[in-house]
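RECORD TYPE: inverse folding
INPUT: C-alpha coordinates
STRUCTURE:
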Protein backbone atom coordinates (compact mmCIF):
# COMPACT_ATOMS: atom_id res chain seq x y z
CA UNK A 1 0.00 0.00 0.00
CA UNK A 2 1.40 3.38 -1.03
CA UNK A 3 1.63 5.99 1.70
CA UNK A 4 0.92 9.67 1.32
CA UNK A 5 3.91 11.47 -0.28
CA UNK A 6 5.46 13.85 2.23
CA UNK A 7 7.23 17.09 1.23
CA UNK A 8 10.54 16.42 3.01
CA UNK A 9 12.34 15.17 -0.12
CA UNK A 10 10.95 18.08 -2.12
CA UNK A 11 12.32 20.56 0.42
CA UNK A 12 15.71 18.80 0.51
CA UNK A 13 15.96 18.81 -3.28
CA UNK A 14 15.03 22.50 -3.42
CA UNK A 15 17.65 23.37 -0.80
CA UNK A 16 20.28 21.57 -2.88
CA UNK A 17 19.33 23.58 -5.97
CA UNK A 18 19.62 26.84 -4.05
CA UNK A 19 23.06 25.81 -2.79
CA UNK A 20 24.23 24.98 -6.32
CA UNK A 21 22.99 28.31 -7.65
CA UNK A 22 24.93 30.26 -5.04
CA UNK A 23 28.03 28.22 -5.88
CA UNK A 24 27.61 28.98 -9.59
CA UNK A 25 27.34 32.69 -8.81
CA UNK A 26 30.60 32.60 -6.87
CA UNK A 27 32.38 30.73 -9.67
CA UNK A 28 31.45 33.50 -12.09
CA UNK A 29 33.49 36.04 -10.12
CA UNK A 30 36.87 36.91 -11.64
CA UNK A 31 39.69 38.95 -10.06
CA UNK A 32 40.94 42.12 -11.79
CA UNK A 33 43.90 41.82 -14.11
CA UNK A 34 45.83 44.56 -12.32
CA UNK A 35 46.85 44.27 -8.62
CA UNK A 36 45.36 47.61 -7.64
CA UNK A 37 42.27 48.79 -5.78
CA UNK A 38 41.43 50.96 -8.76
CA UNK A 39 41.19 47.88 -10.95
CA UNK A 40 39.06 46.20 -8.28
CA UNK A 41 36.70 49.18 -8.09
CA UNK A 42 36.41 49.23 -11.87
CA UNK A 43 34.60 45.91 -11.59
CA UNK A 44 31.75 47.49 -9.61
CA UNK A 45 29.08 46.31 -12.09
CA UNK A 46 30.17 42.73 -11.42
CA UNK A 47 30.17 43.14 -7.65
CA UNK A 48 26.82 44.92 -7.70
CA UNK A 49 25.28 42.21 -9.89
CA UNK A 50 26.64 39.48 -7.63
CA UNK A 51 25.47 41.20 -4.43
CA UNK A 52 21.93 41.75 -5.70
CA UNK A 53 21.69 38.19 -7.01
CA UNK A 54 23.01 36.72 -3.77
CA UNK A 55 20.49 38.75 -1.79
CA UNK A 56 17.75 37.68 -4.17
CA UNK A 57 18.55 33.98 -3.78
CA UNK A 58 18.67 34.37 0.01
CA UNK A 59 15.26 36.07 0.03
CA UNK A 60 13.74 33.53 -2.34
CA UNK A 61 15.04 30.67 -0.19
CA UNK A 62 13.69 32.13 3.06
CA UNK A 63 10.27 32.72 1.50
CA UNK A 64 10.28 29.27 -0.09
CA UNK A 65 11.21 27.78 3.27
CA UNK A 66 8.33 29.64 4.90
CA UNK A 67 5.78 28.44 2.34
CA UNK A 68 6.93 24.82 2.56
CA UNK A 69 6.01 24.82 6.25
CA UNK A 70 2.40 24.70 5.09
CA UNK A 71 2.96 21.65 2.88
CA UNK A 72 1.54 18.43 4.30
CA UNK A 73 1.67 16.39 1.10
CA UNK A 74 3.80 16.47 -2.06
CA UNK A 75 0.93 16.69 -4.51
CA UNK A 76 1.62 16.56 -8.28
CA UNK A 77 0.67 20.23 -8.65
CA UNK A 78 3.04 21.21 -5.83
CA UNK A 79 5.86 19.22 -7.42
CA UNK A 80 5.46 20.91 -10.81
CA UNK A 81 4.91 24.38 -9.40
CA UNK A 82 8.07 23.92 -7.35
CA UNK A 83 10.02 22.74 -10.39
CA UNK A 84 8.81 25.81 -12.30
CA UNK A 85 9.96 27.99 -9.41
CA UNK A 86 13.39 26.35 -9.38
CA UNK A 87 13.69 26.65 -13.17
CA UNK A 88 13.04 30.37 -13.03
CA UNK A 89 15.66 30.80 -10.30
CA UNK A 90 18.16 28.74 -12.30
CA UNK A 91 18.17 31.53 -14.92
CA UNK A 92 19.66 33.93 -12.37
CA UNK A 93 23.38 33.06 -12.87
CA UNK A 94 23.00 33.54 -16.63
CA UNK A 95 21.22 36.88 -16.30
CA UNK A 96 23.67 38.02 -13.62
CA UNK A 97 26.72 37.21 -15.74
CA UNK A 98 25.25 38.91 -18.81
CA UNK A 99 24.36 42.03 -16.85
CA UNK A 100 27.81 42.18 -15.26
CA UNK A 101 29.74 41.66 -18.52
CA UNK A 102 27.64 44.28 -20.28
CA UNK A 103 28.27 46.73 -17.40
CA UNK A 104 24.55 47.20 -16.75
CA UNK A 105 23.49 47.70 -20.37
CA UNK A 106 19.75 48.19 -20.98
CA UNK A 107 18.78 44.84 -22.51
CA UNK A 108 20.71 42.64 -20.05
CA UNK A 109 19.21 44.56 -17.11
CA UNK A 110 15.75 44.20 -18.67
CA UNK A 111 16.32 40.45 -18.97
CA UNK A 112 17.51 40.38 -15.37
CA UNK A 113 14.31 42.09 -14.23
CA UNK A 114 12.29 39.66 -16.37
CA UNK A 115 13.88 36.77 -14.47
CA UNK A 116 12.75 38.42 -11.22
CA UNK A 117 9.26 38.65 -12.73
CA UNK A 118 9.28 34.95 -13.64
CA UNK A 119 10.50 33.91 -10.18
CA UNK A 120 7.77 35.96 -8.54
CA UNK A 121 5.12 34.58 -10.91
CA UNK A 122 5.99 31.01 -9.94
CA UNK A 123 6.01 32.08 -6.29
CA UNK A 124 2.38 33.17 -6.76
CA UNK A 125 1.63 29.63 -7.96
CA UNK A 126 3.16 28.22 -4.77
CA UNK A 127 1.03 30.59 -2.70
CA UNK A 128 -2.06 29.39 -4.56
CA UNK A 129 -1.14 25.77 -3.92
CA UNK A 130 0.02 26.00 -0.30
CA UNK A 131 -1.75 29.01 1.22
CA UNK A 132 -5.06 29.27 -0.63
CA UNK A 133 -5.77 25.57 -0.10
CA UNK A 134 -4.87 25.62 3.60
CA UNK A 135 -7.70 25.58 6.18
CA UNK A 136 -8.80 28.94 7.56
CA UNK A 137 -7.65 27.86 11.03
CA UNK A 138 -4.05 27.80 9.74
CA UNK A 139 -4.11 30.85 7.46
CA UNK A 140 -6.56 33.64 8.23
CA UNK A 141 -8.21 35.65 5.43
CA UNK A 142 -6.19 38.68 6.56
CA UNK A 143 -2.89 36.84 6.10
CA UNK A 144 -3.98 35.49 2.72
CA UNK A 145 -4.88 39.02 1.62
CA UNK A 146 -1.51 40.39 2.70
CA UNK A 147 0.41 37.65 0.90
CA UNK A 148 -1.63 38.07 -2.28
CA UNK A 149 -1.24 41.84 -2.28
CA UNK A 150 2.51 41.65 -1.67
CA UNK A 151 3.15 39.04 -4.35
CA UNK A 152 0.93 40.62 -7.03
CA UNK A 153 2.18 44.16 -6.34
CA UNK A 154 5.83 43.14 -6.64
CA UNK A 155 5.00 41.05 -9.71
CA UNK A 156 3.68 44.17 -11.42
CA UNK A 157 6.70 46.19 -10.28
CA UNK A 158 9.16 43.60 -11.63
CA UNK A 159 7.37 43.70 -14.98
CA UNK A 160 7.45 47.50 -14.91
CA UNK A 161 11.17 47.40 -14.04
CA UNK A 162 11.89 45.22 -17.09
CA UNK A 163 10.25 47.81 -19.33
CA UNK A 164 11.89 50.79 -17.63
CA UNK A 165 15.33 49.13 -17.83
CA UNK A 166 15.23 49.28 -21.63
CA UNK A 167 15.60 53.05 -21.37
CA UNK A 168 16.96 53.55 -17.85
CA UNK A 169 18.80 50.41 -16.71
CA UNK A 170 19.94 51.73 -13.33
CA UNK A 171 16.39 52.83 -12.49
CA UNK A 172 15.03 49.44 -13.52
CA UNK A 173 17.59 47.69 -11.34
CA UNK A 174 16.75 50.03 -8.47
CA UNK A 175 13.07 49.08 -8.72
CA UNK A 176 14.01 45.41 -8.49
CA UNK A 177 16.15 46.02 -5.42
CA UNK A 178 13.42 48.05 -3.71
CA UNK A 179 10.93 45.22 -4.27
CA UNK A 180 13.19 42.82 -2.38
CA UNK A 181 12.80 44.84 0.82
CA UNK A 182 9.19 43.72 1.33
CA UNK A 183 10.30 40.07 1.25
CA UNK A 184 13.06 40.37 3.85
CA UNK A 185 10.57 39.08 6.42
CA UNK A 186 8.59 36.26 4.76
CA UNK A 187 6.08 35.95 7.61
CA UNK A 188 3.10 38.31 7.22
CA UNK A 189 1.88 40.08 10.38
CA UNK A 190 -0.10 37.64 12.52
CA UNK A 191 0.92 34.53 10.58
CA UNK A 192 3.56 33.37 13.06
CA UNK A 193 1.14 32.75 15.90
CA UNK A 194 -1.29 30.89 13.67
CA UNK A 195 1.43 28.60 12.37
CA UNK A 196 2.67 27.79 15.86
CA UNK A 197 -0.85 26.71 16.79
CA UNK A 198 -1.28 24.68 13.63
CA UNK A 199 2.02 22.77 13.82
CA UNK A 200 1.12 20.42 16.72
CA UNK A 201 -1.97 19.26 14.85
CA UNK A 202 0.16 18.12 11.95
CA UNK A 203 2.67 16.31 14.05
CA UNK A 204 -0.14 14.28 15.52
CA UNK A 205 -0.72 12.68 12.13
CA UNK A 206 2.40 10.59 12.55
CA UNK A 207 5.30 9.99 10.15
CA UNK A 208 4.71 8.83 6.61
CA UNK A 209 7.01 7.72 3.81
CA UNK A 210 7.26 8.70 0.20
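DESIGNED SEQUENCE:
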Amino acid sequence: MLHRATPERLSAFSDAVFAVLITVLVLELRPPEQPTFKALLSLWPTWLSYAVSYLFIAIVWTNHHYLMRYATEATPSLLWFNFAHLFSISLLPLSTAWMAVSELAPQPVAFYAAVFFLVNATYVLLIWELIDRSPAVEVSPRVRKIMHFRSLATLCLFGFAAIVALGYPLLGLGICISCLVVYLKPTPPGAGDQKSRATPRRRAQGPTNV
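NOTES: The CA atoms of residues 70 and 130 lie 6 Å apart.
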